[in-house]
Amino acid sequence: MTATESGGSVVRRILLGSQLRRLREARGISREAAGYSIRASESKISRMELGRVSFKTRDIEDLLTLYGVTDERERTGLLGLAKEANTAGWWHSFNGVVPNWFPNYVGLEAAASEIKVFEVQFVHGLLQTEAYAQAVVTRGVRDPESKREDIDSKVALRLERQKKLVSEHPPTLHAVLDEGALHRSYGGDEVMRAQLEHLIEMSERPNVTIQVMPFDYSGHTADTGAFSVLTFPESDLSDIVYTEHLTSALYMDKAQEVGQYTAVMDSLISDCPGPDESRDQLRELRQLY
User: Do residues 102 and 249 touch, judged by C-beta distance below 8 A?
Assistant: First the structure.
């Protein structure tokens, strides 16, 4: 399986988890009681309902019985969804070289039909050249040569993720980059010049929009840092906001939280120079290297 294919297994886990939660709540059954019925803990039920773990057929069968789902067509459909949700995505081959919270994001990103991102530290991973990605990944490693295989794997994952942007049915990507990220040199002048040229080229693709938040615009609404908003073609799946921290990440799908981040993104897009002006700014920045 390649990055150009859907990250459907993650989406199916989330969809199934959401349906299980609705069925449980409709029967007035607590997570603790549901966990007891499958010889598991309340936290296991919570993780299942959030779509963060794989599903055992026996557990799904027992939960459906507990929730009063007796219609064979409905049971078969949900059990089939569980089987599909357990299919490993291409990104699982990179487990062990990325933080344990990141593969789930890669699956969601692969399944998204619309991706909106705000980045402040460096160029977003979906828009990085190979040399720039190498420089970014290497920067945080104390002894790069001893970790060369891990570094190469992280860069390979980043490049694999990018393939969907140039696939037959690509998502739309709207990236707002803080100007500071474009002045922060990774890999030297040659690498930065090539990276800026790549941004210019990508900005000309019909499915990619790039805007630059200039230095002279202070106090913008995204002062809490970088984040992503993912939208999916499945009507049953709500938008998801992803934010990353040093040792963890947050996935938010509650309407109120998503609404706040969406409003911030809309404000950033409105306050930034437009795509054409931003492309001109990228051309000017390219001359600095």
Answer: yes
